[in-house]
Amino acid sequence: MGTDIGDLLRRKPLELSELSYRVIAIDAYNTLYQFLSIIRQRDGTPLKDSNGNVTSHLSGILYRITNLIESGIKPVFVFDGKPPDLKSSTIEKRTETRDNARTKWAEAKEQGLAEEAYKYAQASSKVDAEIVSSSKRLLFAMGIPFVDAPSEGEAQASYMVSKGDADYIGSQDYDSLLFAAPMVVRNLAVSGKRKLPNKNIYVDVKPELITLQETLDELEISHDQLIDIAICVGTDYDEGLEGIGPKKALKLIKEHGSIEQLLKAEGREIAKLDSIKSFFKDPPVTDDYELKWEKPDKEAILAFLCDEHDFSRDRVSKAIERLKASSGSGQKTLDQWF
Description:
Blueprint (H helix, E strand, L loop, with lengths): L11 E2 L9 E5 H11 L17 H15 L3 E6 L8 H23 L3 H10 L5 H14 L3 E3 L4 H11 L4 E3 L4 H4 L4 E4 L5 E4 L6 E4 L2 E4 H8 L3 H11 L12 H11 L2 H8 L6 H9 L16 H10 L5 H13 L8 H4 L1
Parallel strand pairs: 2-3, 2-5, 3-4, 5-6
Antiparallel strand pairs: 1-9, 6-9, 7-8
Helix pairs in contact: 1-2, 2-5, 2-14, 3-4, 9-10, 9-12, 10-11, 13-14
């Protein structure tokens, strides 16, 4: 998802303690997708309750977001609104990819190919209306604020950081930088040991910080040129130029100055180029939100997760006590934190 410009970006490893008492605007759809992809059984089946409702995302929110709060992080989830028309082709392709992955997942399970089954199961993940609704319900009970963006969540989160209402964006994708997010934290809620695809090797995944201005200075380009590079490689709104990866795109944009001059020199075109650039530079955002962290509602969390979704009452109770008792490495009281 997003644009594949990661090879160009400067990353700084972080410890969660370095983010203590900072507000992080979390790209909700991106993070929920990660939870749905990663939190699964060995054959790839997501966690479910006795009624067949998927609960992987709820597990991720309760346990992994509680870990962040224990480190002093103040999370706010930012949910996508109506996708722009420019994204319709990408959405169609993602739907087709998920459908194909589901078919291959079933075939791999029948053949007893555990690793293949897990891989295709991850690719079949989808953040649907029920996932969003149940996530918001749990966040509310946990006292964690959330914001509904008018369009792309990353654009709204970037706006919130630019305004000073948040300190960082938490997302795995790089689109936030195209929306001019000053600082992006990756691997925020998915850090830990991770198995490399098709290899019996596990690596440590730690949070990392990407700073927009440092990246631009190091690459010796402007923000407009970063957008041009991403469009060359491909974004959610265009397929990119065939045969051009991030390093070649950087070279060509620096050589020609802009994507318009590059396209003119090479006799190529990108449909709706002006609209794509305009969307990155001036996306729909809103000021209609309030960031307020409340104390967790223990009874509401227990009723929702344990009574309705079969979570272990003992485990959930322990997580709630951690949530109530912790507000970061400095061990401030909750009243001070709120």
